[in-house]
Amino acid sequence: MRLHHLELTGFGPFRERQSVDFEAFQRDGIFLIAGRTGAGKSSILDGVCFALYGSVPRYESGDKRLRSDHCDPEDPTEVRLEFTVGDRRWRVTRAPEYQRPSRRGGGLTTEPTRAELEELVDGVWVGRAGKPRDVGLLLDEVLGLNAQQFQQVILLAQNRFSRFLLASGAERQSLLRALFGTRRYEEYARELGERSKAAQHELDALGERARTLLDQAERLIAAQEPVAAEQGEAPPVDLTARRAAVELGEQRALYRLDTLARERAAADDTRAVAEAAHAERLALAKGQHELGRAHERLTVLEEAGVQIAVDRRRLQHARAAEVLRAPLEAALAADDAAATSDAAVASAEAAWQRVAAGSGEEVVADLAELVERLTGDLAVWTAALTHEAALVQGEAQVRDASTEATRLETDIVALDAQRAQVPAELARLDAELEAEREAAARRDPARSRQEETASRLAAAEEAARLAAAQREAEISHRDAAAAAATAAAAVARLLQRRLDGYAGELATTLVDGEPCAVCGSTAHPSPAEPADEPVTDEMLAAAEVERDATARDERRASDAAKAARERHAEAAARAGGQTVEVLRTQLAAATEEFADAERAVARRDALAARHAELAALDADAEASRTGLVDLLVAARTRIAALTATVDAARQAAGAARGEYASVAERVAHVTALRDAARAAADARADAERAATRAVQARTDADERIAASVFADAAEATAALLKPADMEALAERISSHDTQLAATRARVLELELELAGAPAEPVDTAASRAALDAADAARTAALRAERDAHTAVERLRDLALQIDDAYAGVAARAADAAAIARLADTVAGRAPNTMKMDLETFVLAAELEEIVGAANLRLSDMSSGRYRLQHTDARAARGAASGLGLEIMDAFTGQARPAQSLSGGETFLASLALALGLAEVVTARAGGVRLDTLFVDEGFGSLDEETLDLAMRTLDELRQGGRMVGVISHVAAMKEQLPAQLAVEATPHGPSIIRQDDVARV
After folding, report:
1. Which of 78, 138, 682, 952 is deepest in the core (most CB within 10 A)?
2. Are 253 and 224 in contact, with CB atoms under 8 Å apart?
3. What span, in angstroms and rounded, lies between the C-alpha atoms of 476 and 471?
């Protein structure tokens, strides 16, 4: 953090606006704020602290005494400070609450506290917060230090200069935690504590599982040994004895399983014997029954033998007739074909005679010669028929071509008339299009204005919504901050009460004649009384837990309020500072303007499209006219060619027509005559061939019948059967023969098997009952064996699970103990004998480094006598330890408390410690960089030599680019520090600040 510029108006002893340019001291690095006592030197530091935190180190009552008493009622009071943190430059302006004349009527009114925070962005100051509360919250984030920490590290003010040196361990821990960001180690300790609890819970769950498994095993053993349970044998209580009892129960279950297995084997043998006897009786009864049924089937089959003999003879005749089926059917078919051919000859002859008589053609016997002659004539006339058909088609084509030529001439005339109107229409469209283009050019600017206005309106509406959210977040932050402050105050009160009670606690340990641990005196004339209500560690711990919880709530509320402010500011910036109503009016106007431009664009596009369409139509019409002319020329050429072709076809058709109306008519008449003659000739040939085939088929059939068992064709035909009937008849005969033979064989076989057996039916009820009894006994034995086997497997599985559970308990117990030990150690509990938690341990390391840096200067300033020494000795009454400081006196070789130093010695030690703290914090990455340091008074308590050592120490700080401001009225310091800021009291009372060129040399 580096200061740049300070302005004080109506503040402290300053009435008029006073300015301090800290950058002017940048080259010197160290400067003196000089002035007479009471002139207002410390008020400059008060102004810095008030600007940053709204409070001053010298006043505990807030800002009510900050307004200058020299101000007239209408004079303003204000403090403005410019500073840099990191790479961001800020400007904060504050005004305390004060009375001013009322603007309406007489009297005074209260001017409320005012604050504003700005950031320099690209050379422009941008507002970041505009209310005291918002400014305070944002500055807490920017600075990283609260007011108390700022006054102990950067601004070493009067009466607070030695606070860090003389602070308690808890106060020193709070400051170091803020500077070094070590709160995460507190989170580590909390997380380890939660892990320790989780490990213990897991360990308890594993132990409970082991006990549950033992319970299950004992219940299973009791169920298997009801006699022992009835005798009231008490189960063992010790876990080891219980596990041994489970093992013994498992052995008993194995023995019981072996016994039941032998019983089940005996039951199996008994059942096998009964089953064999019963099977033998069943087989005998079955043989008797089957023999009776076989005799019955044999009787039925023998009675059906007469009909089977008749069927066998019928089948033999059918098979003999089947051989003659094809010759008989062929003879019948040939006779039918011959009769059909004779009828066809008669019909064809009659048709030929009719056609010949109608055409005047002579009926001749040799029809084949006539057919050949007529076929030759038809070939000549058919060629002429083609010319006749082409004549009709050609005449039609000539007419069509003439019609097409006439149409083309008409279309060309009409097209020329239409094109004559196009130039005037194009000129009119050009004029209208030019007018619409100018109006359409305004569309894009209108659209941009509409979109921009709509975006700003949306941002304004969003800002209106976010304003309510911001108010709610700020109220929540206010409440959380109040709760945090209340909790912190409660902790402070408890600490103060405890400090106040230390004297009484110490007095209880005093013994007459023995030295006091504080003053060393052996006399104790007035020991302090112990407090009525001492503050316990539990009370402090509970209050600190509440303080930390409310602090976390306050940070969360602060983050939420900051986010709400940023969202609202961003939305308001996007809205451009306009209200929703104004932007809605502007949007309506922009929308109407854009709609007018859109309509102009539509008209322009329509006119352009019409113009392009008309020009394209004119070009198409020109091309069409050229095509029509070409088509007309082609049509006229085609008409001439078709006319010549028609004349040639007309001459050829006339020669072939003869006395007929047309060539087609002559060809049709002669074709009918030729076809009739050809049909009659073909019918005569077919009839002759059919008669020959009929004679041959009849002769073959007669010969085959004569060689068969049949007397004639009628007898053979009567013996024929359908294939399916013949196959069914053969199957019936074969089936009867097979069944009869099989039945006779089975009867013989059964009679041989039952030879010597009683004739009366065998009774199987007794053997069935014996088998059922043996089977029931076997089933019971199997069930008992299965239950015993299940119990053995269950006990064996439970035993394994119990062993695994106890192994898990043993393994987890070691882990849980290690985690608990680590958590207790990190939290500062036993076995941590130093009562030092992890965060304190880390801070102790940082404190040791701070002490090391401080001793480099304190040794020089005290001529080697004093050195700061970090001590981790345990605090009294079990309080947390690890951040103690004491002074090692080289003269005595003994360490003593810092409170035992004189005023000058305390100043030197405090200065060295403050400088060491500043160096260590600056060197830490991510820490707060302390580029500015103020020291207010304390130099007057030093002798000349010690003062010279202290000044050399401060002068060394310039090497790191740090700027140090020293407030003092010691004359020797004015001579040693050429860069000075003079505070002078005017004769009329108010003070002024003088910073001229001499002071900046």
Report:
1. 138
2. yes
3. 9
DSSP state of 184: H
CA-to-CA distance for 84 and 64, rounded, in angstroms?
28
The share of the chain scoring above pLDDT 90, in percent, equals 6
Q: Distances in Å between the alpha carbon of 521 and those of 141, 408, 512, 517, 896?
A: 50, 143, 10, 8, 15
628-632: list long-range contacts, CB under 8 Å, 24+ apart: 628/408, 628/411, 628/412, 628/415, 629/412, 631/404, 631/408, 632/405, 632/408, 632/409, 632/412
Q: Which residues contact 72 (CB under 8 A, 6 or more apart)?
A: none
Does the pLDDT value for residue 160 go beyond 60? no
887 forms beta bridges with: 868, 896
User: Which residues, at least 6 apart from 750, have a Cβ–Cβ distance to it below 8 Å?
Assistant: 287, 290, 291, 294
Is-contact 882 185, C-beta < 8 A? no
Between CA 988 and CA 998, with CA 992 as vertex, the angle to 5 degrees is 130
**Residue type at position 33:** I
Please state, in angstroms and rounded to a whole number, the distance separating the CA atoms of residues 155 and 149.
9
Where helices occur in 54-182 by DSSP H, the ranges are 132-143, 147-153, 163-166, 169-180
H/E stretch holding 231 reads: none
Q: Reduced to 3 states, what is the DSSP secondary structure of residue 32?
A: strand
Does the pLDDT at position 661 exceed 70?
no
- Cβ contacts of residue 983 below 8 Å, gap of 6+? 33, 34, 35, 39, 40, 41, 43, 44, 991, 992, 993, 994
- H or E stretch covering 109: strand 108-111
Q: What share of the chain is helix, strand, coil (3-state, %, to 5)?
A: 70, 10, 20
Q: Are 416 and 647 in contact (CB under 8 A)?
A: no
Question: What is the structure's pLDDT at 524?
Answer: 66
Exposure string for 213-225, b = 16+ CB within 10 A, e = fewer: bbebbbebbeebb
Does 831 sit behind a cis peptide bond, omega within 30 degrees of 0 on the bond before it? yes
Instruction: Please report, in angstroms and rounded to a whole number, the separation of the first and last CA atoms in the chain.
Output: 24
Please tell me the distance from the alpha carbon of residue 147 to that of residue 332, in angstroms, as a whole number. Answer: 139
Ordered DSSP codes for 257-287: HHHHHHHHHHHHHHHHHHHHHHHHHHHHHHH
C-alpha distances (whole Å) from 356 to each of 367, 369, 763 are: 12, 15, 106
Mean pLDDT within 606-630: 80
Distance between CA 105 and CA 108 in Å, rounded?
Answer: 9
Q: What is the DSSP letter of 120?
A: E
- Which letter does DSSP use for residue 534 in this model? P
Distance separating alpha carbons of residues 667 and 672, to the nearest angstrom:
9
In sequence order, which ranges of 754-832 are alpha helices (DSSP H)?
A: 765-826
Yes or no: say if 26 and 132 are a contact pair by the CB < 8 Å rule: no
Q: Indicate left, alpha or beta for 33 from its phi (over 0: left) and psi (-120 to 50: alpha).
A: beta
Pick from 5, 27, 302: nearest CA to 125: 5
pTM of the model: 0.40
Nearest to 906 by CA among 920, 896, 891, 892: 896
- Contact between 886 and 895 under an 8 Å Cβ cutoff? The reply is yes
The C-alpha angle 907, 912, 915, rounded to 5 degrees, equals 120
Which residue's entry shows tokens 């006229």? Answer: 636
- One-letter amino acid at 988 equals H
Q: Which of 170-174, 357-361, 658-662, 898-902 has maximum average pLDDT?
A: 898-902
- List, in sequence order, every residue forming a beta bridge with 8; answer none if it has no partner: 18, 79
Comparing C-alpha atoms, which of 850, 849, 828 is closest to residue 839?
828
Dist. CA 539–CA 493, nearest whole Å: 11
